[in-house]
Design goal:
- It is built from 13 helices and no strands.
- The longest helix is centred in the last third of the chain and has 36 residues.
- 48% of the residues are buried.
């Protein structure tokens, strides 16, 4: 059942981001607003259908538990905000800094280091302080790091970029595993497998909307800042399509001025998308403080509590 729910959400997530998940290509034009709307309609129809059938793919009764509901929402929120980095920064390294795909991957390693450090510390903090404060702290770090990343400019060195990338990983490591553990801790052992599938599925939905929305913001910022007025209309249209196309046009024409304009325009768009990502992450702080339980498993629903064995309830 968990696999089925994941597969169903995969279908829905593809419906909203198939036009927006290829790095380096034109990201989300006007027609993609219709794609997003269609995806939202499909999602609503799926929920209504699941409420009517006797054997649903996704057990909506899971969401009667506040701990599961809000832990899942916060996990999806992290996935959404994280796409501000995962979508834009590899393109920044390859098309602005000028390294290849391997070099871009290596420059993203500080995020992995921060993620490992955050996950390790988050587990200890959750046991000591509870998931509420730990997740809120993770979102605060994530929001601050994304805001710092939005200040990246053409003259920024890799040291500055590596620092905020590492902090994004650290904040994610604090927030995401703890939020997911809080969600699963609100369920009985019998329902944890289904709950885990639902969490992963909704995280994919969050990532899909992040790719679509943040990609659209990035591309809008890039187009608005690019100075292509001196180009023939056909070349100007091509250059505005994506940073890859803009770089290709500039190199074909041998125009350092256009190349710098392309780089500056992309960094501007990246800054906007990171700033919006940071704002979304900042919303997670009060949400975690308001809705997450102080201790893991403390917010199980009455139905879930009744399913637990006496040993589970005593624990």
């Amino acid at each position: 059942m968990a696999g089925s729910s994941t597969g169903s959400a995969t279908f829905r997530s593809r419906s909203v981001d198939f036009a927006c998940d290829e790095p380096g290509v034109q990201v989300c034009d006007r027609s993609d607003g219709l794609v997003l709307l269609a995806g939202a309609v499909v999602l609503c129809a799926f929920v209504l259908w699941e409420q009517r059938v006797t054997e649903p793919l996704l057990d909506l009764g899971l969401f009667r538990s506040p701990g599961f509901t809000w832990g899942t929402i916060l996990g999806a929120t992290v996935s959404f905000a994280l796409f501000g980095l995962l979508f834009a920064v590899p393109q920044y390294f390859q098309d602005v800094v000028g390294v290849n795909a391997m070099g871009s991957g290596l420059r993203l390693l500080p995020m992995i280091g921060g993620l490992l450090a955050g996950a390790g510390l988050g587990d200890a903090l959750a046991r000591r302080l509870g998931p509420k404060l730990t997740v809120a702290l993770g979102f605060a770090v994530l929001a601050g790091a994304l805001a710092a990343g939005s200040r990246t400019g053409l003259g920024s060195g890799y040291g500055f970029v590596a620092a905020w990338i590492a902090l994004i990983g650290f904040g994610t490591g604090l927030a995401m595993p703890t939020a997911m553990n809080a969600a699963l801790g609100a369920l009985s052992a019998e329902r944890s497998g289904v709950g885990s599938g639902a969490i992963q599925a909704l995280r994919m939905v969050g990532s899909s909307f992040g790719a679509a929305i943040l990609g659209s913001i990035l591309n809008s910022g890039y187009r608005s800042r690019l100075d292509a007025a001196a180009l023939p209309p056909a070349l100007a249209h091509t250059a505005r399509g994506s940073v890859v196309a803009g770089v290709a046009v500039a190199k074909t024409l041998g125009s350092p001025g256009l190349l710098r304009s392309v780089h500056a325009a992309f960094v501007h768009g990246m800054g906007l998308s990171l700033l919006v990502s940071g704002a979304v992450a900042a919303v997670g702080v009060p949400v975690a403080l308001r809705f997450l339980p102080r201790a893991a498993g403390a917010a199980a629903s009455p139905d879930t509590q009744s399913e637990r064995s006496p040993d589970e309830l005593a624990a």
